Amino acid sequence: MKKLTTIALIACAVLMGACGPKDPGLKDAYKNYFKIGVAVTGRNISDSLQASIVLKEYNSVTAENCMKPGEIHPQPGVWNLREADAIADFCRANGIKMRGHCLVWHSQFATWMFNKYDENGNQVVERDENGDTIWVEQPARGGFGGFGGFGGFGGFGGPRPQGQPGQMPQGGFPGFGGPRPQGGQAQAPQMTKVPKYAKATKEEFYDSLRAHINFVVNRYKDVVYCWDVVNEAMSDGNNADVPYEQSFRQSQAYQLCGDEFILKAFQFAHEADPNADLFYNDYSAWTPAKRTFIYNMVKKLQSEGAPITGIGMQGHYNIFDNPTIEDFEKAINMYLELVDNLQITEFDVRINQEAGGGLQFSRGEGQVLTDTIAQMQMDKYDQLFKVLRKYKKNFSCVTFWNLSDRDSWLGANNFPLLFDNQYQRKPVYYTVRDFKK
Fold it and tell me: Which of 122, 251, 357, 364 has the fewest C-beta atoms under 10 angstroms from its C-beta?
């Protein structure tokens, strides 16, 4: 019998004997269905109570934020690896496989890839006919950084410190501790003059992207079994009949490359690890418009040689009609025409009427989880898991997006998960776990 790790021993102690068969974890309840995963931060795996929950309940782990390209590779030659390495090492030590998230995403991308560099790695400036630097005005840097730090969308508090490979900024893992923006009168930004920099060609962009994907995939290929290769490339439009070109988010990558950047990203990822499952991942993937956009894109790019082997349906839902069960199942059947491997990659069910992966949302101040609302949430989780169990041969993993309400990118007062802000099981946990076999 394998010797238990220290954390596993703590797990059993903290959960007061819950390692026994009379109290199975979620992964045990679904062992004949699909993996049950969770998105974690460095804090989740370094705190003994939180780590014990991860080990008891889940058999797949996603790094919530630290493997995104803008986080792990913020500048040419600069890598922030410490948190990603810590999560990967935790999984290696405890025999848990990881979902890699993600290699290309417009919102937290390594945007330096769109710039041109000389042979010494210096950014190239544009010059006028006299050879003088061209200057432009832009808002001065400062204030609050990327919005939505609790969901893996970047932390509040301004730009992140940079470092050498493996170096971690002082103050621990990113995404915590920064001040939140306060309300009040908006002020005009101060302007400053900066050089106008030359933009990379499509080929130069692909060279940078390929090198990035090759490094990241190879560093973690022993523990990562699948990758979200491209994340959220499709438009949020609600007209399924728009021309193909209008179905895409107009990101920098799309404006430079068209849909070819998706094809290239999947080809680069497959070159780096031919054995990994490669997913296209998006939110609201059940809606008639977006499921059509995703379907058309995947079908076209597969025909052109893109090794897209899976589709990730993020699953940022609510207790009302997002999603409708009918449309949810329709989307599943559409995607199964293209791939055999589906996953719910970022599962949560909030108690208000918002949904999706957009960064503008209410954090639930003043909301109360009444008995009626709690029952609605249990009913919604129950309905969704009934469908997932029906398609168990096609779903390989269902991943909850964060460990508890306290950790959720939506805020604790949206009550979206199975564990409360004290890391205790909520009644909805038992709805999901104790289904009728």
Answer: 122
